[in-house]
Amino acid sequence: MKYDIIVIGSGPGGYIAAVRASQLGKKVAIIEKYATLGGTCLNVGCIPSKALLDSSHHYYDATHHFAEHGISVENPSFDFSKMIERKATVVETTTGGIKYLMDKNKIDVFEGLGSFEDATHVKITKKDGSSEVIEGTNIIIATGSKPANLPFINIDKERIITSTEALKLKEVPKNLIVIGGGVIGLELGSVYARLGADVKVIEYAPKITPTMDADVSKELQKVLKKQGMDFYVSHGVTSVERNGDEITVKATNKKGEEVTFTGDYCLVSVGRKPYTEGLGLEKVGVKVNEKGQVEINSHLQTNVANIYAIGDVVKGAMLAHKAEEEGVVVAEFIAGEKPHIDYNLIPGIVYTWPEVAAVGKTEEELIAAKIDYKAGKFSMRALGRSRASGDLDGFVKVLADKKTDEILGVHMVGARVADLIMEAAVAMEFRASAEDLARICHGHPTYAEAVKEAAKAAWDGKPLNA
């Protein structure tokens, strides 16, 4: 069978590329090695983690905040198995929606492991050992990533686990040790901390969320500590050992002293690495860099002209929405259009509570680049909407060019900032100034008013409500 485009991998990047290509009149096939579509994000990543985050958030509110609203709940409890069951239902519904999109757009779906026979032929090896070969004029690699590990850690998937196992535990850990203070570690750590686990986060870097603005990291750590999580930054893990149901983690702090942690579960969340195993890239000569990422040019083309790569398998932030944008760009480029993507404007989000969101440059990046900038900051605590809901933690910070007033970066911690950040992204896409954002009338009372106030603080240093 011959196709205009074959997509290997059905995660957010892959299935969106397939849908867009079909919309543009291409005959498309998609190959997925698992029985369900949607890749890591929909099956064992973004979607199931948000389902558990929401469930645990409701319980935390019931036990910590209902009373202040005058709501009395006698001895609130939770059924963890029901939470896991609900999460599975959300995943099933979402992945079923992808199957619907494939049918709607007349995209042929093949289940099996896709591997290159040559530059235009892909072999699909099925679970029963049988195989078939299909032909594609263009091929898109969208195979995503898998959890990374430290070389001395033996992940047994029972007590020493990755994010995949953390989403389907049979019980809430009593003492959960999280190795890695990035997005995944903090989100899953939050889930179990809200449900009563004693959570300790060990981070090698001097701050959690290491790639984010320092003010954001500081605020988030302060708030999560208030919620009961403990943090050990500038700690390098040296060993992880299991003895029965007890896990012992040893680390070296910045003074060079050895510190020992014990718990009943250890979540290893030290990032993710590109997944290219079994693809047969060597058969077609597709180049891979020292990090295992498929090398691409500005059009997401590999060194083999008709083969493209998108998402976690290539350079850049490992984010579902980044993969989606790249999927659209590749499909449109193959169809002869002239798409573009601005990697500076891909938002980063942490779905703890309060949420964290950012777009553009951090203060540290602007300082390193020797760019003259001004900063405006506004506290969520000063908003009527925040006081009404009780979500007082956090702030919005706007960074703007000192000479032109163009917005260079926006960083937020607070309620619903995962949604608020898009106001900043849109403004920056149109190269708006801080004054532009400050002069736009914002609804009252809303969390979004903090964006307006922070923009005014950056523009003229005079927010109206602070």
Any descriptors?
3 domains; 466 residues; Enolase-like, domain 1; FAD/NAD(P)-binding domain; globular; 7-stranded mixed sheet; alpha/beta
Blueprint of the fold:
Blueprint (H helix, E strand, L loop, with lengths): L1 E7 L3 H12 L4 E5 L6 H6 L1 H19 L15 H25 L3 E4 L1 E4 L4 E5 L5 E11 L3 E3 L12 E2 L1 H4 L8 E5 L3 H12 L3 E5 L11 H13 L3 E3 L3 E8 L2 E7 L5 E6 L1 E4 L3 E3 L6 H4 L22 E3 L10 H15 L13 E3 L4 E6 L2 H6 L4 E7 L4 H6 L5 E7 L5 E8 L2 H13 L4 H6 L9 H12 L6
Parallel strand pairs: 1-2, 1-6, 2-3, 6-17, 8-15, 9-10, 9-15, 10-11
Antiparallel strand pairs: 4-5, 5-6, 7-16, 12-13, 13-14, 18-19, 19-22, 20-21, 21-22
The secondary structure category is alpha/beta
Low-confidence stretches: none
In total, how many domains does the architecture comprise? Answer: 3
Strand content: 15-25%
Distance between the termini: 66 Å
Please summarize the sheet with the most strands.
7 strands, mixed
Output the radius of gyration.
23 Å
CATH class of the largest domain: Alpha Beta
- What's the CATH topology label of the largest domain? FAD/NAD(P)-binding domain
Question: Which term fits the overall shape?
Answer: globular
What is the CATH homologous superfamily assignment of the largest domain? FAD/NAD(P)-binding domain
Give the rounded overall mean pLDDT: 98
Give the CATH architecture of the largest domain: 3-Layer(bba) Sandwich
Question: Can you give the helix content as a percent range?
Answer: 25-40%
Got a strand count? 22
Total number of helical segments? 14
Could you walk me through the main structural features you see in this protein, from its secondary elements to its overall organization?
With 466 residues, this protein is of the alpha/beta class. The protein has three domains: 217 residues, FAD/NAD(P)-binding domain (3-Layer(bba) Sandwich), CATH 3.50.50.60; 111 residues, FAD/NAD(P)-binding domain (3-Layer(bba) Sandwich); 107 residues, Enolase-like, domain 1, CATH 3.30.390.30. It is built from 14 helices and 22 strands. Strands 1, 2, 3, 4, 5, 6 and 17 form a seven-stranded mixed β-sheet that branches. A five-stranded parallel β-sheet has the order 8-15-9-10-11. A five-stranded antiparallel β-sheet has the order 18-19-22-21-20, sandwiched between helices. Helix 1 packs parallel to helix 9 and helix 3 packs parallel to helix 6. It is globular, with a radius of gyration of 23 Å. The termini are far apart. The mean pLDDT is 98.
